[in-house]
Amino acid sequence: MKNLFSNLTLVLLLAAPGFSLATPVTVGDLEWRQVTDTLGFSWNDFASVCDPDSGACSGNLGEVSFDGWTWAGIYEIGDLFSTLFGHPGGISNLQFPYSEWAPAFFELFDPAPGQYPVAWGWSRDEATATRGRAARVVDFPYMDQAFTGDNIDKDITNYQIGGWFHRSARVLVPEPGVVLLLGAGLIGLGITRRSR
To answer: What is the phi-psi region of residue 129: left when phi exceeds 0, alpha when psi lies from -120 to 50, beta otherwise?
Structure first.
């Protein structure tokens, strides 16, 4: 009975709204959020929890927390694409048939639901007062595309469009106390072992 309760609790936790197993992607010194974590919000929605000038985010949209994330600008997204695709100088519209970079991209980033693998998200940049800029990668059967020039009405929401967000890559540094405790434990084990 205890195992059944534990298993049900685990299932409920995994199915809870806002819970995501999507792992951020680390590129250079930035950790990029999966675009699929933020699907279905408009540019204006993101602007309500993130500063379009600095990109700094704070707050939630529904169950999705944006605390600690930075809303990426279009040039940052272009640099991400350039780094991952080995194409220097930024990307505005890169198209190649049967590329290797598009399938490799979707080994890192989860695709949105749809007929073809796509990662499509809002940047914090505005094209005009009523239109925002978005960027996408699509793995079409005959033509793969990375595009940073989408110009879309800021109120549009779409089940395939999320947002591009990053934060500083997390470096795991052991706490000095933990290191001392581990060292003391190892020394204690060594002394105990020698005395036997």
So the answer is: alpha
Q: Report the helix count and the strand count for the chain, using DSSP H and E.
A: 5, 11
Tokens found for residue 178: 């933990």
Does the model's pTM come out above 0.85?
A: no
User: How many whole angstroms separate alpha carbon 25 and alpha carbon 80?
Assistant: 11
Token pair 């959020």 is at which residue? 33
d(CA 16, CA 83): 35
Question: Which residues, including other chains, have CB under 8 Å from residue 153's CB and lie 6 or more apart?
Answer: 130, 131, 132
pLDDT in tens, 131-173: 999 999 999 988 888 888 899 999 999 999 999 999 998 766 5
- For tokens 């220097």, name the residue: 88
For the chain, the domains span 23-182
Q: Report the Cα–Cα distance between both ends of the chain, in Å, rounded.
A: 44
Q: How far apart are CA 141 and CA 135, in angstroms?
A: 19
Mutual angle of helices 74-85 and 101-108, in 10-degree steps: 110
